[in-house]
Amino acid sequence: MNELQKELQVQLEKFRLDKIEPTAEHDDANASFKKEIFNELGALGFCGMTIKEEFGGAGLGYSDFCVALQEIAKSSVSYAVTVSVSTMVQGIIERFGNEEQKKKYLPELTSGKEIGAFCLSESGSGSDAKALKTTAKKVDGGYILNGSKMWITSAGIAKTYIVMARTGATGSAGVSAFIVEDSSEGLTFGKKEKKMGWKVSPTREVLFHNCFVPSENLIKEEGQGFKVALGGLDAGRVTIGAIAVGLSERALDESVKYSLGRSQFNQPIFDFQGLQFMMADMATELEASRFLVSKAAELLDSGAPDSKLCSMAKLKATDVVMKITTDAVQIHGGAGYTSEYPVERMMRDAKVLQIVEGTNQIQRVVIARHLKKQYQG
Ligand code: COS
Fold it and tell me: How far apart are CA 237 and CA 87, in angstroms?
């Protein structure tokens, strides 16, 4: 970590211990999202870190952003993911949007006053994203959207939605991307999903019933939406990896402390080799994922993003966090299975990291396709 990253980490550690940690258990139990926490993170400059300063961002890189997400995730995966998805939306607007779109939508997102959401998945198209059925029919002055999007992070609390909809024939070439505001007529939200984890972060269906979107809200040209979505997801996958690294670090920390303090058979359970080997593996796998996430972030910052490495970082870090949090519960024994200890929540929060922004099976598909291309051209 460089000096700036160390400073960011110290600042966020203080913030999360003061503002998030004290009520983390209660907020999880009540599925309560506090917009003021997000707003405060924004006021401190953490809600648009990778966006240029002229649009209100911090003008920093993904390497810095990953350090910040790791720290937030130690207390709350939910707030970390709200920040990460909102920043992914900003990244899409900054990279693919026109000047008017950037000026209109970025400042309120970079400042953390408002939240962004990403709408690709549908009930019938999750991994097979290009099979999406939501339509956008061209009319005078804009498009009419009909259909629905499923499992949308921050739906209902977000103001700005990037929505992929079909303007053309089947397949990826018929998909276009739009910026849709929450106040649009014909846009409604389904019920809040009852989830295993990530309880503080609301997930809902987003429904479009004859929802008018003005032409100026089309991102790039018609037919570019699939590339816009997948281009945005490359960076998003690295940030999900970073969140997994932060959660792994906290779970290891809890495990070491607990096992040093808990005695059985007249000695701290840490001194049993069976547990030592478990924690040695946890620490090693944690560092392996951290290096992979850092490398992928470095390449994003260098301007030569590597989709294969983005998928590898997401795959490795999220498979590792599932193992680490599961082992953390095991080390805590019966106590770890209760909400008295945070590792129970961490294990639940870890699971969906293997699913979101492309399941880990899809990450393997992406990696294998790159390998094949490398060998066969
Ligand atoms: N960046 C930009 N464009 C990309 C891209 C990327 N990372 N990956 C693929 N594309 C482009 C391809 O170049 C292709 O364009 P051309 O037809 O002009 O060549 C187009 O997108 C379609 O790609 P492809 O033919 O590979 O599509 P497939 O359906 O075979 O595979 C997968 C695409 C499965 C990789 C994709 O659908 C995917 O990532 N699915 C998971 C979706 C997901 O992550 N959902 C999470 C939602 S947020 S929680």
Answer: 12
223 falls in which pLDDT band (50, 70, 90)?
very high
Does CATH number 3.90.550.10 belong to domain 3-114? no
Among protein residues, the one with the nearest Cα to ligand 1's atom 4 is 227
Q: Ligand 1: distance of its center to the CA of 324 in Å?
A: 30
pLDDT of residue 102: 98
Provide the phi-psi class of 53: left if phi over 0, else alpha when psi is between -120 and 50, else beta.
alpha
| Ligand 1 centroid, distance to 207 Cα (angstroms) | 24
Q: What is the CATH number of domain 232-376?
A: 1.20.140.10
Ligand 1 proximity of 172 Cβ (cutoff 6 Å): yes
Q: Where are the domains of the chain?
A: 3-114, 117-226, 232-376
311 near 238, Cβ under 8 Å?
no
Q: Report pLDDT for 357.
A: 96
| Ligand 1: nearest atom to the Cα of 226 | 21
Spacing, Cα 310 to ligand 1 middle (Å): 13
Each residue's pLDDT tens digit, 285-335: 999 999 999 999 999 999 888 999 999 999 999 999 999 999 999 999 999
Q: Is the CB of 366 under 6 A from ligand 1?
A: yes
362 lines ligand 1 (CB under 6 A): yes
Distance CA 33, CA 290 (A): 28
pLDDT in tens, 52-109: 999 999 999 999 999 999 999 999 999 999 999 999 999 999 999 999 999 999 999 9
Is 154 a pocket residue for ligand 1 (Cβ < 6 Å)? no
The per-residue pLDDT for range 300-312, each reduced to its tens digit, is 999 888 999 999 9
Q: Give the CATH class of 117-226.
A: mainly beta
Q: Against a cut of 0.90, is the pTM above it?
A: yes
HEC states along 317-361?
HHHHHHHHHHHHHHHHHHHHCCCCCCHHHHHHHHHHHHCCCCCHH
Is 40 marked active-site? no
Q: Which of 120, 226, 354 to mutate to test the pocket of ligand 1 (most atoms within 8 A of CB)?
A: 226
Is the CB of 247 inside a 6 Å radius of any atom of ligand 1?
no
User: Structure tokens of 44?
Assistant: 């401190």
Instruction: Give the count of beta carbons closer than 10 Å to the beta carbon of residue 205.
Output: 21
66 Cα to the center of ligand 1, angstroms: 24
